[in-house]
Amino acid sequence: MKLLSRKATCNSHGQDSSYFLGWQEYEKNPFHEVRNPAGIIQMGLAENQLSFDILESWLANNPDAAGFKRDGESIFRELALFQDYNGLPSFKNALVEFMAEIRGNKVRFDPNNLVLTAGATSANETLMFCLADPGEAFLLPTPYYPGFDRDLKWRTGVEIVPIHCSSSNGFQITGSALEEAYQQAQKRNLKVKGVLITNPSNPLGTTMSRDELNLLISFVAAKDIHLISDEIYSGTVFDSPSYISITEALMDRNLELTNVWDHVHIVYSLSKDLGLPGFRVGAIYSNNATVVAAATKMSSFGLVSSQTQYLLSVMLSDKKFTSNYITENQKRLKKRCDMLVSGLKNAGIGCLKSNAGLFCWVDMRHLLISKTFEAEMELWKKVLYEVGLNISPGSSCHCTEPGWFRVCFANMSEDTLNLSMQRIKSFVQSITTDGDSRNRRQTVRNSRRRSLTKWVFRLSSYDHEPER
Questions:
Q1: Whole-model pTM?
Q2: Per the CB 3.0–4.6 Å rule, which of 107, 265, 399, 446 could disulfide with 143?
Q3: 3-state DSSP call for residue 209?
Q4: Which domain holds residue 163?
Q5: Residue in 173, 228, 232, 424 annotated catalytic
Q6: Is 26 a catalytic residue?
Q7: Is the peptide bond before 30 cis (omega within 30 degrees of 0)?
Q8: What is the pLDDT of residues 102-145, one digit of tens each?
């Protein structure tokens, strides 16, 4: 061990979170409808598997792109040789047009301000390296994606200070919560370099309101700090209210020529909207030339392959395909979300009203034996081991209220989702029945105690009557 670095031997990766532990347990006993029907169903993985048929249909109809050909001629050698780490211009152009289309073409993006990265994980970490030094801090609203503890902190040395949000207003960010988090960082002698948000939110499955975005813009402007908007779920918005990108909010306030414009950065990826996490395609978008230059240099440590860029440049340049995909994918997400919400409601479980993402923020507070995070972990273990569902406890997302869980719905078939709902309903009925039995037994015991107390009281009164 003495021959290894501190980074190699430290235990600060964040992989000991229940979020990751649930994955490990799933991998030991994964559900399969034929081979292992009693196994654990993976509901802790935010993957979009609902529209693969649309992608596969496009590939079948465009064999040249899939076969690395242009006008029938092979370009394999061209793609296989060294490429500039700035990325293929054709892909960057297609990607920024796709980003604009997702946002209703209300905003435009300059491909020169785009930096390609190996997924959103790499993009977020790269921004940390560009914007903060070790020991400096970013503020994050809770609940937040559990992987941020790993992605933002592990190699960079950057600290996270939570902005505590509450269920009382649907976990929306407030001015008082922002200021309290900023003051908390100062008490810890941490220099705050910025705020990082996910919009749409992971794990809430909601989009930020215009009021929230304006609040954040005003806050970072007043503090002269950065704002990172992780928008990797922007194409998954399937219900009202409509999606507002941070860029749109800035433009509506005519802030293009101000310092704030240079202090706002967007993270994007094709992992969620196109369901391609294995392709490792992410991006940083920034109007800050220094950030773009630094991030481009750093991107050489995590490039997107030329083959992947070429294939996707052809796919995303097909406007008929992108229009159909975005519309149909959102319809399928809404249908699947409705299935989950309805199934949970039938089991006596409610959810935060969501309009985006691949998951719901599920309220199981009434199933806790006490209002504690210990009780939350006890319930989580029962759901994982006894019910056979891997869901993510709110504590892994740094939620301040025990009893909330993130439940994913887009990484499985309808039959598997229906089975998971049957399992959770049976579980709730069993603990409700057990609870009723306990309550009845307790009622009988209490009745007996009251009868005994009355008898003792009468006996005591007889023994102590005054002499006549």
A1: 0.89
A2: 399
A3: coil
A4: 53-322
A5: 232
A6: no
A7: no
A8: 999 999 999 999 999 999 999 999 999 999 999 999 999 999 99
